[in-house]
Amino acid sequence: MAVLARAKADEIAALLAGAGALPAYDRIRGPESGLVMVRGRSGGSGAPFNLGEMTVSRCTVRTQTGQIGHAYVAGRDHCQAELAALVDALLQHETYTATLHSCVIEPLAAAQRSQHAAIQSKAEATKVQFFAMRNMRA
Asked: Rounded to an integer, what distance in angstroms lies between the CA atom of residue 125 and that of residue 121?
């Protein structure tokens, strides 16, 4: 679900279109937007405190084969929440599990890994070697 929560709605829709015929579904709840309280910890291990509120969208769908899928995504993209809920429901049906993993989940995960690696390498290029600065002063 984390892969779907980080993906854009148009990316999910494009990959779902290539997954073949999918069953119809009904919305049970939403999609709708709301706020959740984000909590933090000082230093990562201190006492928890309320950091602030964050907008999320949620949706629940039921496929005509009976599976129920839920999704919560950051932001106000109702289409993303609905598509993520649909994929969640379809992943529970053995007919679609392998197809969706190979056609939707794995390509999205690979794209997110490469994007993360690009950001990480860009940050790595600006890393300061403090021991080198200490040696320069000596």
From this structure: 6
What is the domain extent for residue 6?
Answer: 2-137
Q: Characterize 37-72 residue by residue with b for buried, 16 or more Cβ atoms within 10 angstroms of its Cβ, and e for exposed.
A: eeeeeeeeeeeeeeeeeeebbbbbbebeeebebbbb
Specify the pTM.
Answer: 0.81
pLDDT in tens, 33-65: 999 999 998 887 888 999 999 999 999 999 999
> Distance between CA 135 and CA 137 in Å, rounded?
5
Sign, CA torsion 92/95/101/103: negative
How many domains does the chain contain in total?
1
pLDDT in tens, 18-35: 888 888 999 999 899 999
